Amino acid sequence: MTDHPKTKIVSDPVELVPLLVTFNNSGYKIVYEMLSKSWVTEKELCQQYESECINDCLKMLKKGNLIDEQWRTVPGKKPEKEYRVNYQKFRANFQCTMEDLVSMLYISTSNDEKLRVLSDNIKVEVDSGNTSIGEIARKIGVKPIYVKGIAKRIPHFDVRGQGLILLDGEK
Hints:
By secondary structure, this protein is of the alpha+beta class. It contains 8 helices and 7 strands; from the N terminus they run βααβααβββααααββ.
């Protein structure tokens, strides 16, 4: 790591979602621990752990701004992206209602059917061109913070301003 450990400052309860999703998944946690030791390429991660979870894990870690990436160049070989952990410390600096905090904890850790249905409904809205968090929340009958939290949980979605975006050309 560096001589001066960086601190992850969370200023919005929605930012807890990718953190909690990452550390509530044993595979993601193993990948995170590997990345905390040194720079590692995706190929190297796949050699050490189940390759099917690596891509989603890297998306979730990027979404939570938990990893750095850079290009590894070796003479005579194609450059590869490599990753490592971005922060060594954590600090939360936000205030919210208990209802919103409970919602973010639920979204981060639950696997119940209601959450899957809401995720599917959000995907349908985004696929139809509706990326407005407020409009999606109104259409599916939840608070905007719920839409943001679910978007932060799904590897191929993210929140930008008051809208949702699809990451890496996912469909």
